[in-house]
Task: structure prediction
Amino acid sequence: MLLSATIFLFFYTFTTQFHVTSFLVGFLILYQIYSLIRYVDKTNRHLASFLESIRFSEFTRSFQVEGMGSSFDTLNKAFNNVIKDFQEIRSEKEEHYHYLQSIVQNIDVSILAYQKNGTVEMINKATKKLFQVHNLKNIKALEHLSKELVNCLLNLKPGENTLVKVQDEDDILQLAIYATEFKIHNKLIILATIKNIQNVLEEQETEAWQKLIRVLTHEIMNSITPIASLSSTLDIMLKEISNRPAESSTLKIDMATVEEIQQALQTINKRSTGLLHFVNTYRNLTRIPKPNFQIIRISELFKNILLLMEEEIKQSTIDLKVEIKPKDLEVSADEKLIEQVLINLIKNSIHALENRKGGRIFFKAYQNKRGRVTMQVIDNGQGIIREVMDKIFIPFFTTKQRGSGIGLSLSRQILRLHGGTITAFSEPEKETVFTLTF
Result:
């Protein structure tokens, strides 16, 4: 309306020959037209600014609400409300993202996301701790740990479960791996969950052997006890008969026959008594006392063991070396039970070094790279062949002529009660290492 009035005034002054006035009014008309165009264009500029905020996720921008006219006030208010909604949605998504990240990073299951070519997209703390890496860019970087593991991960099919055994210096890792597959931004991602089930397998194996031993010893004891008792009673009765004068005996029994029966009964009694002792020995596998945990200084533990075994080691002319790093290293354990394990391992080493020149036993204690207290008994004896290595912790299995086959099985159970593991590694005729990890 103002522009129309100004144009009318321009023509009026122009026709009445007020040239200076008409010139000023014409200039005013141009300014009004410019202002009108700018006013109309402001809507487009605000809309463009709003869309840029959405495009670049810049939700901190705000639009002036008051003083620009009712139509602009409504538009700016709508823009601000939309941006506020976007801010809330973005905040919720970020919270949800951080929540999931926190779960993934702090869960005790190792999670690894990677592409088919091995490029790692995501790795959580449990995986870094399991493989002892600070960063992992490609699966192939794990080849120093195990080539079999790398091949398994790269060739793992979606929905497939597999087991991989990894020897990581002092530790044996029995890894259960499960994989799923999904697509993100046209990238095929494999999500693998990895769990070290070595402790679980050992625990289940030990429990199975204990159940079997309980059943066997129960049934054998039930059968042998009355045999031993009856054979002993009959043996006594026959001795009484054989000691009577021949003429006073009411029974006419050939003394040679009595002696034969007596010898047979003595044999039965001897074998059944020996079998009872045999069964009671194996019962020890199921009767390990609950550990009495105390903080033990390993240097004192080794000192006590060496005092007990000093004479036997000297007689065997074996060179003994002890190394503890740090010297004040401590462990929470039952001292008597751990002594029993270490003494058993030393005796095994002494046996392996029989008739061997330059025999050496090396006692070692330290914290491994996972921060766990570790003890090792190392010798340069005849070693353990590969075919036997997987069987040495099985109850009753032994390679010694006079061995009972329960020493290493008993040691494994003691370590299981301590929440630890015992493993063996051997290069025949070079080195055998028994490792206790707490």
